[in-house]
């Protein structure tokens, strides 16, 4: 040995068990930081991919400018591409049709299709002349079109427009759910076909300009400069909020609140790592202070002791790094695989073995920095051990206490446990702080679940894949069609609803209007999860009973309550309906202020005399192919609106799955780290006090009393940490909730009793696990071995 620092590997071998626990703690800290930052990185990647696929990869759009101004903006060096984009008949109210279907017409430059939208063209190419058009796939499939064919659409006046097909474009959720076709024309052809043009400015063509920037680092500055140079108002420049938000470049007020929240949660994660490692190293050093005192006896200076302790800490850190990185990479791979499986339409292009280099870099840098900061206090403590204390064997003795253990309220064993917990103020603060931060982290991150529930729609049980709808909103869809669909092997379930709109009713002398809807067994069963009062199944058992919907939409609140009897007037006849239940949601929303009453099919038919359906919804099995959907479309006929909601549902489920996977993953990770941290801290604390426990056993303390003492010590940390963590956690929970939810949706904050109970339950479970191994170890050792333990 040529240098005192060569003692580091020797010390590691001698104190292998204690050091192994410190390595585990550093590994967990690295895994926590790297995984959370890595998951955030992958979340941003997948959401950015989804945002580009849904909305396009443009950053801003500008309206109410001239073509000359657009050319000047496009010439700026910061602009990657800029395209004119306009729509005609977007609201499907102008009478444009193709082969008898409503037609949506879009006009744009080629860059919009090739650079701004992702995978828009499935066959062929964008039109190169004003006589060509890019046609949607559903039009190709329905009309048996191919490239080079001529299509002819007409407007409300019967004027026809002929174009040659240059290619086919991927269907969107809008056109499949509305059962309409769309075409893309060149900007020149679009403007030539646009009606009612006055002065020929882009505004006359309902057009705007979409902009994609080159450099993502200074987008905010560039947007501000463009506004100033061309004197554009905020109303003229609209951001692609989702994409800019994911790039950290959004100026949206709500996105700024999200950035603040993300920064706050990142700080909490860093603090958790620092406390976890500091607590572990502090307990490790506390058990070996005599060793450092002996080094002082042979001439080692305090500065050398500090350097030795820090070298040990970094040695442990470098041993934990490979395992932490490997665990992080494996976690990211699993997440990517799950995303690809859950939503291949959106995340199929994600690499199977993606690596989050920002997450790994953050984990390594923060772990090394954390170990350095965490080792400073234990190093000073080791350097402060006097040679005389080491020689006398009292280096591990706690500082003199002015008060003895309080035996007035507790028995001697419990009192000693509480006394031991408070013996070292620094260790007590570290232990309780570590426990408290686990609660704070969990409560703060749990708000993201509330954010997800507000921001992301999820598929309801009654959400259909296909809908066959009466074009006149009357009961005109044949009942026999439902019976045929139910026999189809690719149909998971099919169910119909009959509608009667704005039916006059009387309740307690007050008049009103209601929309009457029929439900059968399946739909009635779905209402069970949304019952406010009453029993929905009553409508199937008794005629002339109904279900009222409490809040259909737009914060409209029903006057109807369970037990009310309303008199409906249908075809001049009065029928009394008893409200058997009130539910919070149903498959239909009203925007006209009418009440909604749901009844059985028998009651509906008896009241109205109608037997056919207004809409038939179809949910498909996983085996359904495109030809199966086309077959259902064919048997539905041309006299019905055929709404294909599969793309829309894929969008909703893809968004929800990605949010849920990452957010619940964050919470699961925090819970897992909490369990291991508490177990590790408790084990290290017992290990550091092993000689004291041996001395207590030598003077007559029984195994049972020693067990109660250790449990009391651990509970002292747990109770104080839980109390502190609950107070601060609820404060931060409310702060984050206000920033992420209340400020956007107005939902008031309530105490999260469920989340608080879960994390406290996890901590209590962890404490039970934490004391088992140390107690088993002490019981298996003799008194002499316990006193001589290092």
Write up what this structure looks like.
The chain has three domains: 4-47 and 255-457 and 653-787, no CATH class; 57-239, no CATH class; 466-652, no CATH class. Helix content is 54%, strand content 17%. Strands 3-4-9-6-8-7 form a six-stranded mixed β-barrel. α12 runs antiparallel to α14 (357-383). The two termini are 23 Å apart. A hairpin with a 2-residue loop joins β18 (565-570) and β19. The radius of gyration is 35 Å and the shape is globular. Mean pLDDT is 81; it is low at 393-399 and 552-556. The longest helix has 43 residues, at 646-688. With 790 residues, the chain is an alpha+beta fold.
Chart the SSEs and their pairings:
Elements: H1 7-14, H2 16-55, E1 60-63, H3 67-74, E2 79-88, E3 97-98, E4 101-108, H4 110-116, E5 121-124, E6 132-136, H5 137-143, E7 150-154, E8 160-169, H6 173-178, E9 181-186, H7 187-193, E10 207-213, H8 219-230, E11 237-239, H9 241-246, H10 253-286, H11 289-297, H12 302-342, H13 344-347, H14 357-383, H15 387-392, H16 412-423, H17 425-455, E12 466-469, H18 479-486, E13 491-497, E14 499-507, E15 510-519, H19 521-526, E16 531-534, H20 538-541, E17 545-549, E18 565-570, E19 573-583, E20 595-600, H21 601-608, E21 615-620, H22 626-636, E22 641-644, H23 646-688, H24 690-698, H25 703-745, H26 753-780, H27 783-787
Parallel strand pairs: 4-9, 6-8, 15-20, 17-19
Antiparallel strand pairs: 1-10, 1-11, 2-4, 2-10, 3-4, 3-7, 5-8, 6-9, 7-8, 12-21, 12-22, 13-21, 14-15, 14-18, 16-19, 17-20, 18-19
Helix pairs in contact: 1-12, 2-10, 2-12, 2-14, 2-23, 10-14, 10-17, 10-23, 10-25, 12-14, 16-25, 17-23, 17-25, 17-26, 23-26, 25-26
């Amino acid at each position: 040995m040529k240098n005192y620092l060569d003692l580091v590997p020797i010390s590691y071998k001698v104190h292998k068990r204690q050091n192994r626990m410190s390595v585990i703690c550093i590994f967990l800290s690295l895994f926590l930081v790297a995984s959370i930052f890595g998951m955030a990185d992958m979340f941003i990647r997948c959401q950015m991919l989804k945002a580009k696929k849904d909305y396009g990869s443009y950053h801003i759009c500008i309206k109410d400018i001239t073509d000359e101004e657009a050319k000047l903006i496009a010439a700026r060096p910061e602009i990657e591409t800029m395209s004119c984009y306009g729509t005609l008949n977007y609201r499907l109210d102008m009478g444009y049709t193709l082969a008898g279907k409503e037609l949506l017409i879009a006009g744009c430059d080629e860059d919009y299709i090739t650079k701004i939208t992702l995978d828009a063209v499935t066959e062929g190419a964008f039109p190169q002349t004003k006589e060509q058009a890019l046609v949607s796939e559903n039009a190709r499939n329905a009309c048996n079109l191919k490239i080079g064919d001529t299509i002819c659409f007409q407007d409300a006046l019967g004027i026809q427009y002929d174009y040659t097909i240059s290619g086919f474009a991927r269907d969107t959720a809008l056109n499949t759910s509305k059962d309409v076709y769309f075409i893309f024309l060149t900007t020149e052809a679009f403007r030539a076909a646009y009606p009612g043009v006055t002065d020929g400015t882009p505004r006359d063509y309902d057009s705007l300009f979409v902009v994609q920037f080159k450099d993502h680092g200074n987008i905010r500055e560039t947007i501000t400069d463009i506004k100033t140079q061309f004197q554009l108002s905020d109303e003229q420049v609209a951001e692609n909020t989702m994409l800019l938000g994911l790039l950290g470049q959004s100026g949206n007020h709500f996105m700024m609140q999200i950035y603040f929240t993300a920064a706050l949660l990142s700080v909490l994660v860093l603090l958790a790592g620092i406390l976890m490692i500091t607590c572990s190293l502090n307990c490790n050093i506390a058990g070996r202070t005599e060793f450092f005192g002996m080094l002082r006896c042979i001439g080692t200076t305090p500065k050398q002791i500090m350097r030795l302790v820090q070298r040990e800490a970094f040695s442990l850190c470098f041993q934990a790094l490979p395992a932490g990185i490997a665990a992080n990479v494996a976690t990211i791979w699993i997440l990517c695989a799950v995303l690809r499986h859950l939503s291949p339409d959106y995340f199929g292009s994600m690499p199977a073995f993606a690596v989050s280099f920002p997450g790994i870099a953050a984990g390594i840098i923060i772990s090394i920095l954390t170990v350095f900061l965490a080792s400073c206090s234990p190093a000073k403590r080791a350097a402060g051990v006097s040679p005389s204390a080491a020689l006398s064997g009292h280096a591990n003795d706690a500082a003199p206490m002015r008060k003895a253990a309080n035996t007035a309220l507790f028995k001697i064993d419990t009192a000693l446990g509480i006394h031991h917990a408070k013996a070292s103020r620094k260790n007590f603060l570290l232990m309780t702080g570590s426990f408290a931060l686990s609660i704070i982290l969990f409560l703060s991150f749990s708000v993201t679940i509330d954010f997800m529930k507000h921001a992301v729609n999820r598929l309801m049980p009654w959400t259909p894949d296909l809908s066959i709808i009466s074009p006149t909103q009357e009961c005109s869809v044949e009942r026999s069609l439902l019976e045929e669909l139910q026999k189809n092997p690719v149909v998971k379930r099919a169910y119909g609803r009959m509608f009667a709109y704005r039916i006059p009713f009387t309740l307690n002398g007050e008049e009103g209007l209601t929309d009457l809807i029929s439900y059968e067994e399946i739909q009635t069963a779905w209402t069970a999860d949304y019952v406010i009062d009453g029993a929905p199944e009553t409508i199937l058992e008794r005629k002339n009973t109904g279900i009222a919907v409490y809040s259909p939409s737009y914060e409209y609140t029903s006057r109807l309550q369970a037990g009310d009897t309303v008199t409906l007037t249908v075809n001049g006849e009065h029928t009394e309906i008893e409200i058997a239940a009130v539910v919070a949601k149903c498959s239909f929303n009203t925007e006209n202020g009418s009440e909604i009453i749901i009844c059985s099919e028998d009651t509906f038919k008896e009241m109205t005399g109608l037997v056919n359906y207004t809409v038939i919804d179809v949910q498909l099995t996983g085996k359904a192919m495109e030809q199966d959907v086309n077959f259902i479309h064919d048997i539905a006929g041309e006299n019905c609106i055929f709404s294909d909601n599969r793309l829309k549902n894929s969008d909703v489920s893809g968004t929800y799955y990605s949010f849920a996977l990452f957010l619940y993953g964050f919470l699961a990770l925090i819970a897992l780290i909490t369990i291991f941290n508490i177990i590790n801290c408790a084990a290290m604390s017992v290990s550091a006090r092993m000689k004291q426990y041996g001395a207590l056993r030598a003077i007559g303390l029984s195994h049972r009393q020693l067990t109660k003492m250790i449990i009391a010590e651990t509970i002292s940390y747990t109770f104080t940490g839980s109390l502190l963590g609950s107070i601060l956690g609820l404060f931060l929970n409310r702060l984050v909730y206000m920033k992420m939810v209340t400020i956007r949706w107005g939902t008031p904050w309530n105490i999260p009793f469920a989340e608080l109970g879960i994390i406290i339950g996890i901590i209590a479970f962890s404490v039970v696990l934490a004391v088992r191994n140390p107690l088993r170890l002490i019981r298996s050792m003799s008194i002499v071995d316990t006193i001589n333990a290092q």
